Amino acid sequence: MATNYPRFLEPLDFGFAKMRNRSLMGSMHTALEEVENGFERLAVFYAERAAGEAALIVTGGIAPNPAGRVFTGAAKMDTEEEAHEHRTLTKAVHDNGGLIAMQILHTGRYGYHRDCVGVSELQAPINFVKPKKLSEAQILQTIADYARCAALAQSAGYDGVEIMGSEGYLINQFTAARTNNREDAWGGSYENRMRFPVEVVKAVRKAVGPNFLIIYRLSLLDLVEGGSSWEEVVLLAKQIENVGASILNTGIGWHEARIPTIAMVVPRAAFSSVTGKLKKEVMLPVVASNRINTPEIAESILSKGEADIVSMARPFLADPNFVAKSRSGRAHLINTCIACNQACLDHTFSGKTTSCLVNPRAGNETNLNYNPASEKRKIAVVGAGPAGLSVATVLAERGHSVTLFDQDKQIGGQLNTARKIPSKREFDETIRYFGNMLTEHNVAVRLGRRVEAKDLIEEGFSDVILATGIRPRKLAIAGADRANVLSYLDVIREEKPVGKRVAIIGGGGIGFDTALFITDPGYKTWDKAEDFAKEWGFDLGVSARAGLSEKNTAYTASPREVTMFKRSKGKFGNTLGKTTGWIHKLTLTERAVRQVSNVTYEKIDDEGLHYTLKGEAQVLPCDTVIVCAGQEPQREIEEALRKGGVAVHLIGGAKEAGELDAKRAIAEGAELGARL
Ligand code: NAP
Ligand code: SF4
């Protein structure tokens, strides 16, 4: 079939191995390596991605020795027994026509354990452990460990290895003066600092012979003080090429960098122009990475000549059939990764197994399946927000007759509010995906009218699923009904006017979203890499060391004075996502948003918001008060339905409003949809 993605779908032949298209499924730690039956689950997880035509899969990082592990008990490969376990993975991928490489990752000073080692005794700002400095003998042993690990991976049936040389892990710690203050042959001059990665690649090539892929993940922009200059990056790339690597993958930013590199605030393909600069310097195939989430973006990078291969890690969590759908003219049905990190990286960093907000089956392929229903039922779903969309599409995919109701004229529910937050436009893709899935699976959609219990009873639905969501909690103080007191829905959804001096009541996720919405300077930096770079202070032109440059303060100037309040003690933002919360907190700090905790609200009047702090009465003069004080469930028709003899199921906010987010809503919808 003719396709729209000629470059993306073009094969790449290495002689001894052939990528069937230009997609590389980037390394993601799933945490399945470390749980019971993890390898069986991981085999099915990878098999589905290979069957969906991911050309070359790179596993999560595997340490070459105990000191290189992420944490005590994390995956390593230094014995034949460990290598043997991986055979199920390599076979699963090969049986489905794919290639698989194992990533060798030595964390160095990023290891969260007592055996953590470093190039120098310099503690990472994101680690609580001070590393022990490697001796020269230990450095030579570590190089040998990389080589042994690669040989073991080869014996386990892998097609190659990826040597992780970016994101601030051990190899970066050698190359950057920031982390390397040694005075021996492994420190000092850049020639000495890059000796370690060069020796690693040399040793690995010697151990595995010529017919085995060696992917080297090169840090293009370190984005930390004391990181590598562009000239140093290019020099290293050329040396790595000379000593036998097969592919140069790219990485952007160390984990300790304070510039977002993969979150939703980052424009799509923001860094591909830098990969394009590297491509001009080397002969090896070069891989672009970071925020590539649609086949159009992939095709555009390849057709501009910025890279030979595109790496997508999270997009393959969101949709295992990303490539197959692109090839078969069904790209409109791709479930797009929205870069929220909520069920992938946030899980990884909280010790949970990885999944995906938009695709709860990710990582659960053995226990969450949408099999054909044994008995077909007539089912109504009330509410076309994330929970309702999820349950309706799964039920219909399984063969049930499904009708979806919503009083709004459009599907999406709360997603329509979320998508209006600057930098959250990716939610458009989720709405687009579900909309197309409703059509694909013949769900009858009835919008624009509130449905009553009697209508549903009369129509003879056997089951009604209430996904009717939430209503914002009202404030119970004097003056809460004044015209200048608005709910976050008034502000974000209805776009009611907001004054210049604002009080926000509530410091949860929606309080933050609202603050970001009303303080946005209007540059749409989530849309254009050049503007994003000015906002966050980095240089896509690679003229400055490590890519860092001055921030342009116009990009952080808020049009309003905003103060956020909460009743509880402690800092704001503790409930935000582990890997993205810092971005929102830093953004609001730079926009001079004040945050006051431990308050008691008293009243709102002409003077403003009155509250008590540490026993003292205070008043914040303000034009507008925005209430973001959580929500309550909305499920009025439940009782009448039950009385009418209908089986009622509650999901999402209608079931439990506390800690509701799109992740829980979509997962609950999918789980109920798989069960009925
Ligand atoms: P939330 O996180 O539970 O926060 C509700 C806020 O309202 C709290 O700060 C609470 O603070 C305050 N509050 C509760 N009852 C109150 C009352 N009676 N009077 C005054 N203040 C009250 O809920 P949310 O902000 O509505 O967010 C809903 C869900 O969406 C959460 O699970 C959230 O994580 C998720 N979400 C996340 C993001 C993100 O991570 N970027 C964005 C949007 C939504 P005090 O009790 O201290 O006053
Ligand atoms: Fe992408 Fe969010 Fe899914 Fe992670 S959880 S893969 S970021 S959509």
How is this structure best described in words?
This protein has 676 residues and is α/β, with parallel strands linked by helices. The protein folds into three domains: 6-348, TIM Barrel; 378-471 and 642-675, Rossmann fold (3-Layer(aba) Sandwich), CATH 3.40.50.720; 474-521 and 557-629, FAD/NAD(P)-binding domain, CATH 3.50.50.60. It is built from 23 helices and 27 strands. The protein has an eight-stranded parallel sheet with strand order 10-9-8-5-4-3-12-11. The longest helix is centred in the first third of the chain and has 20 residues, at 136-155. The mean pLDDT is 96. It binds NADP nicotinamide-adenine-dinucleotide phosphate (NAP) and iron/sulfur cluster.
List the helices and strands and how they pair.
Layout: E1 12-13, E2 18-19, E3 23-25, H1 38-51, E4 56-62, H2 80-85, H3 87-95, E5 99-104, E6 117-118, E7 132-133, H4 136-155, E8 160-165, H5 170-175, H6 190-193, H7 195-208, E9 213-221, H8 230-242, E10 247-252, H9 272-279, E11 287-288, H10 295-303, E12 309-312, H11 314-318, H12 322-327, H13 345-348, E13 378-382, H14 386-397, E14 401-406, H15 414-418, H16 427-440, E15 444-447, H17 453-458, E16 463-466, E17 470-472, E18 485-487, H18 488-492, E19 501-505, H19 509-518, H20 529-536, E20 561-565, H21 581-590, E21 594-596, E22 599-605, E23 608-613, E24 616-620, E25 624-627, E26 631-633, H22 638-643, E27 647-650, H23 662-675
Parallel strand pairs: 3-4, 3-12, 4-5, 5-8, 6-7, 8-9, 9-10, 11-12, 13-14, 13-16, 14-15, 16-27, 18-25, 19-20, 19-25, 20-21
Antiparallel strand pairs: 1-2, 17-26, 22-23, 23-24
Bound molecules: NADP nicotinamide-adenine-dinucleotide phosphate and iron/sulfur cluster (SF4).
Iron/sulfur cluster is lined by residues 314, 317-318, 337-344, 356-358.
